[in-house]
């Protein structure tokens, strides 16, 4: 990343886009959860598995269902706790970047059936980059607690996903306030938005797009004003 960024201490990945949640649940024959509208939920990912621009990602052992996830993420710039759920919360943010929350969907199905996780289905890789753009540089795209930026995903130069970060149900102030409730956020902590609507193969369905990711595939996630995050899939272990 081009800006000096402290070592990443933690990654909290939220679930903020209603379209993504609704569509994935509908594929499983499930209605929308009322609880999703009550609190912005997240899970912790592995900061030691972060990959940068042009790094190669390897699917975890035993997985044959590697997926990308197109997300916006912010990097915390100062130590804060119990942030307010309004625009003052953005004062804690160093900037924004692109996040690819790589997922092993076959491992994830087994983990989530137990009611705990995701764990090893997410543990192996998270891509961030290509740079961090300060919030000051994006102020003209910020409205109603959301950044309004076009987002796309291409696999081998073929566009599969397109959305806008302004479609988030939960706002960045709400997310930051929840993440910092009762705990300290520290410089370098990363907070992901969750997957934008249509932003992964699981949501699109592998049948519609020609299957899960394969060795040699090049995944390019682009967010307006933030650049393009590019990674290649390696051979499975």
The profile of the biggest β sheet is: 7 strands, mixed
Name the CATH architecture: Alpha-Beta Complex
Write down the CATH class: Alpha Beta
CA(first)-CA(last) distance = 28 Å
The overall strand count is 18
Please render the helix and strand layout as text:
Blueprint: E1 11-14, H1 18-27, E2 42-45, E3 50-51, E4 56-57, E5 66-67, E6 70-76, E7 80-81, E8 93-100, E9 103-104, H2 105-114, E10 126-134, E11 142-143, E12 146-147, E13 150-155, E14 158-164, H3 172-179, E15 184-185, E16 190-192, H4 201-204, H5 206-209, E17 218-223, E18 227-233
Parallel strand pairs: 1-16, 3-10, 4-18
Antiparallel strand pairs: 1-2, 5-9, 6-8, 6-16, 7-15, 8-10, 11-12, 13-14, 13-17, 17-18
Structure description:
The mean pLDDT is 95. This protein has a single domain (11-233), classed as Fumarylacetoacetate hydrolase, domain 2, CATH 3.90.850.10. The chain starts with 10 loop residues before the first strand and ends with a strand. It is built from 5 helices and 18 strands. It has helices at 18-27, 105-114, 172-179, 201-204, 206-209, and strands at 11-14, 42-45, 50-51, 56-57, 66-67, 70-76, 80-81, 93-100, 103-104, 126-134, 142-143, 146-147, 150-155, 158-164, 184-185, 190-192, 218-223, 227-233. The strands form 5 sheets. Strands 2-1-16-6-8-10-3 form a 7-stranded mixed β-sheet, covered by helices on one side. Strands 4-18-17-13-14 form a 5-stranded mixed β-sheet, with no helix packed on it. A two-stranded antiparallel sheet has the order 5-9. The chain is an alpha+beta fold.
């Amino acid at each position: 990343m081009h800006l000096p960024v402290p070592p990443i201490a933690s990654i909290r990945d939220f679930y903020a886009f209603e379209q993504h949640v609704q569509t994935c649940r509908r594929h499983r024959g499930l209605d929308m959860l009322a609880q999703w509208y009550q609190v912005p939920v997240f899970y912790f990912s592995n900061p030691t598995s972060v990959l940068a621009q042009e790094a190669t990602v390897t699917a975890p052992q035993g997985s044959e269902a590697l997926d990308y996830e197109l997300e916006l993420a912010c990097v915390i710039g100062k130590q804060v706790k119990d942030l307010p759920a309004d625009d003052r919360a953005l004062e804690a943010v160093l900037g924004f970047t692109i996040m690819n929350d790589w997922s092993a969907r076959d491992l994830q199905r087994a983990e989530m059936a137990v009611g705990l996780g995701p764990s090893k289905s997410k543990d192996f890789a998270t891509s961030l980059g290509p740079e961090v753009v300060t919030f000051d540089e994006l102020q003209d795209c910020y409205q109603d607690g959301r950044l309004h930026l076009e987002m796309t995903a291409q696999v081998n130069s073929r566009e599969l996903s397109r959305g806008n970060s302004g479609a988030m149900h939960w706002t960045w102030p709400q997310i930051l306030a929840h993440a910092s409730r009762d705990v300290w956020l520290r410089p370098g902590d990363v907070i992901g938005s969750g997957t934008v609507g249509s932003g992964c193969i699981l949501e699109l369905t592998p049948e519609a797009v020609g299957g899960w990711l394969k060795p040699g595939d090049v995944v390019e996630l682009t967010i307006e004003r933030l650049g393009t995050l590019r990674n290649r899939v390696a051979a499975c272990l």
